[in-house]
């Protein structure tokens, strides 16, 4: 029986951006943490205390960091743009969401 090797050809010099991948990972962490904090806050009927508020502010900082890294990675040359764009979208959405929740907390 013959075993044939598949030859993988790479016709480009593009690589995955490390900053873009970190941005995407921070976005995924932001999604998971938002779901967990929302669930825990609903269990306590909205009276979770200062711990949930501090976690929200920390997650706002995480989303802003991911947004910043996504912007930096999009400026790089010869990279695949899938991870940086996904990180930009996720982190941008959650940074806006956390900011709106933060402002709503002042008004209530």
What can you tell me about this protein's structure?
It is a single chain. The protein has 108 residues and is mainly α. It has helices spanning 18-43, 50-74, 82-107; strands at residues 15-16, 79-80. Helix content is 71%, strand content 4%. It has a two-stranded parallel sheet with strand order 1-2. Helix 1 (18-43) runs antiparallel to helix 2 (50-74), helix 1 (18-43) packs parallel to helix 3 (82-107) and helix 2 runs antiparallel to helix 3 (82-107).
Q: Could you give a short description of this structure?
A:
The protein has 108 residues and is mainly alpha-helical. Helices cover 71% and strands 4% of the residues. It has a two-stranded parallel sheet.
**Poorly predicted segments:** none
The average pLDDT is 85
Share of residues in strands: under 5%
Give the beta-strand count. Answer: 2
């Amino acid at each position: 029986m013959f075993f044939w090797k598949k030859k993988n050809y790479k016709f480009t010099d593009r690589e995955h951006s490390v900053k873009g991948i970190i941005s995407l990972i921070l976005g995924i962490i932001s999604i998971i943490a938002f779901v967990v904090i929302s669930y825990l806050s609903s269990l306590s009927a909205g009276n979770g205390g200062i711990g949930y508020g501090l976690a929200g502010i920390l997650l706002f900082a995480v989303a802003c960091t991911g947004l910043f890294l996504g912007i930096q990675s999009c400026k790089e040359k010869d990279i695949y743009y899938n991870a940086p764009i996904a990180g930009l979208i996720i982190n941008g959405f959650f940074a806006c969401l956390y900011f709106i929740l933060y402002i709503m907390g002042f008004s209530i």
